[in-house]
């Protein structure tokens, strides 16, 4: 209504300005202090009393632009030979929604293509049957039409012998304990025998 001004929701109080010019048929909506809340379709509806012919509305899409926040890179899985691991990358903010891409570098920081079997889908990089050759730097770029931001993870693939090493240590510990128990057993038997013998001598 032109007389009472626009009916404004509390969330838009003081942030909305509607300029109406009846002679030119022009209505201008101004939104101030834009937030992602307004990242939406906006419809303009015209109502003329008793006029029902024609199209009474038109709509447009308002895209609020927000630069991607620095993404967070993570390694998910065990970084040992022959394992399959995932690398995740995500920006908390960004509008339109950022797209993600991983770039891999050798340990000497030389760019290289991702391994043949690897997949890079929407920030999720999957690496299969990793080895020492998979070690290096992995940089994820999060990008939308405004800007891009990156994160960088270092992958150091360890030989599985590290795991076998601890199993080996456990086996050695078990063997040592076994030997000690055996030694105690032998010592006791000998002592008892010697005692029995000395008793026999005494009796004799
Ligand atoms: C994993 O890679 C090794 C060589 O690095 C190869 O010998 C082995 O067959 C591969 N395993 C699978 C399941 O592809
Ligand atoms: C990733 O990090 C490594 C080690 O901190 C650094 O040497 C390398 O230059 C970085 N790469 C990029 C593209 O930022």
List descriptors.
single chain; 204 residues; alpha+beta; Immunoglobulin-like; 3 domains; four-stranded antiparallel beta sheet; binds 2-acetamido-2-deoxy-beta-D-glucopyranose; transmembrane helix; A33; Ig-like_dom_sf; membrane
Describe the structure.
The chain has 204 residues and is an alpha+beta fold. The protein has 3 domains: 10-62, no CATH class; 72-155, Immunoglobulin-like, CATH 2.60.40.10; 163-204. 21% of the residues lie in helices and 33% in strands. The protein contains 1 helix and 12 strands, in the order ββββββββββββα. The chain has one helix at residues 161-203; strands at 16-21, 26-31, 40-45, 57-62, 72-76, 85-90, 99-105, 111-112, 119-121, 124-127, 136-143, 148-155. The strands form 4 sheets. It has a 4-stranded antiparallel beta sheet with strand order 5-6-10-9, with no helix packed on it. Strands 8-7-11-12 form a 4-stranded antiparallel beta sheet, with no helix packed on it. It is elongated and about 120 Å long. Residues 82, 129, 131 line the site of one 2-acetamido-2-deoxy-beta-D-glucopyranose. One 2-acetamido-2-deoxy-beta-D-glucopyranose (NAG) binds at residues 109, 137, 139, 152, 154. One of its GO terms (cellular component) is plasma membrane. This is Ig-like domain-containing protein.
Query: What is the succession of H and E elements?
Result: EEEEEEEEEEEEH
Which residues form runs of ≥5 with pLDDT under 50? none
Largest sheet geometry: 4 strands, antiparallel
Shape: elongated
CATH topology of the largest domain: Immunoglobulin-like
The CATH architecture of the largest domain is: Sandwich
The helix content is: 10-25%
Number of E-state strands = 12
Could you tell me the radius of gyration in angstroms?
37 Å
Secondary-structure-derived class: alpha+beta
Strand order of the largest sheet: 5-6-10-9
End-to-end separation: 130 Å
The figure for the number of domains is 3
Ligand names: 2-acetamido-2-deoxy-beta-D-glucopyranose
In DSSP terms, counting alpha (H) and pi (I) runs of 4 or more, how many helices? 1
Let me know the average pLDDT. 85
In the CATH hierarchy, what is the class of the largest domain?
A: Mainly Beta
In CATH terms, the superfamily of the largest domain is Immunoglobulins
Strand percentage lies at: 25-35%
């Amino acid at each position: 209504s032109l007389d009472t001004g626009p009916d404004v929701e509390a969330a838009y109080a003081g942030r909305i300005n509607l300029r109406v010019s009846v002679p030119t048929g022009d209505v201008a909506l101004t939104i101030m202090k834009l937030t992602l809340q307004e990242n939406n379709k906006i419809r303009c509806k015209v109502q003329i009393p008793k006029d029902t012919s024609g199209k009474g509305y038109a709509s447009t899409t308002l895209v609020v632009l927000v630069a991607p926040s620095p993404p967070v890179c993570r390694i998910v899985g065990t970084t040992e030979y022959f394992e399959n691991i995932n690398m995740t990358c995500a920006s908390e903010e960004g509008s339109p929604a950022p797209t993600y891409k991983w770039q891999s570098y050798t340990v000497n920081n030389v760019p290289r293509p991702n391994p043949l079997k690897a997949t890079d889908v929407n920030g999720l990089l999957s690496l299969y049957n990793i080895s020492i050759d998979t070690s290096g730097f992995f940089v994820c770029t999060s990008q939308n039409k405004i800007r891009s931001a990156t994160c960088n993870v270092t992958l150091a693939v360890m030989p599985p012998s590290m795991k076998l090493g601890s199993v080996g240590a456990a086996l050695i510990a078990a063997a040592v304990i076994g030997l000690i128990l055996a030694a105690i057993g032998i010592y006791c038997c000998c002592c008892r025998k010697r005692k029995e013998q000395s008793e026999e001598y005494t009796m004799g």
